[in-house]
Design goal:
Layout: E1 3-6, H1 13-24, E2 27-29, H2 33-39, H3 50-70, E3 75-77, H4 81-90, H5 100-117, E4 120-123, H6 141-154, E5 163-166, H7 174-185
Helix pairs in contact: 1-7, 3-4, 3-5, 4-5, 4-6
């Protein structure tokens, strides 16, 4: 079973994914979002035009697909195509100039990747204390909530065919998160 943790930045996805992978005996596949931004001479917290955003999102998706494909056996990862779509959509406002064919191609490719690589997506909502980290996206609570809402909406899109699990946002202590997720991942764990 391949499990992807999805949600906004700074919600504890990587920490939780590492612990789950260890306990489930699965490979942890870390996404390289910060590295790819750095390779492109950009920072995730800086404003960028939409063409630049879409270009970097395609690069991130390429890297993720390569890493997920290379995984040996079952894996758990700290980002999913749903996250990638949410960040892309999060940059669109009423006046944003969007190349519709490229945008449509990107969204369809993300849904395809989610359905090919994942059995289960786990929505990790905001709640853990926010801390600054080098190379990470803006530490803006409203923006984090915006991305969280987009993730939740995308996880209910009919194009997504894998199982989606969400746990309460007030569940912020790591060992409680882990035991809850392990229970939810068991057969019959969803009510």
């Amino acid at each position: 079973m391949n499990v992807g943790l999805c949600g906004a930045h700074r919600t504890g996805k990587t920490t939780l994914a590492l612990e789950l992978a260890k306990l489930k005996g699965a490979q942890f596949v870390r996404t390289r979002v910060s590295e790819i931004f750095k390779e492109c001479g950009l920072h995730p917290a800086q404003p960028m035009d939409f063409a630049t955003r879409l270009d970097i999102q395609f690069r991130i998706l390429d890297a993720c697909e390569s890493d997920w494909q290379a995984a040996a056996g079952n894996f758990i990862t700290d980002r999913t195509p749903v996250d990638l779509m949410a960040y892309t959509l999060g940059d669109i406002q009423g006046e944003t100039q969007v190349s519709q064919p490229e945008f449509d191609r990107y969204i369809e490719r993300c849904f395809d990747a989610a359905n090919r690589f994942f059995n289960t997506l786990l929505i990790v909502q905001p709640g853990v204390p926010l801390t600054e980290a080098d190379g990470k996206a803006a530490l803006n609570k409203a923006y984090i909530e915006h991305i969280n809402s987009l993730v939740i909406g995308l996880c209910h899109d009919e194009r997504l065919r894998c199982r989606v699990i969400s746990f309460p946002r007030n569940l912020t202590v790591l060992n409680e998160r882990v035991s809850t997720v392990l229970a939810l991942l068991q057969p019959g764990g969803l009510k």
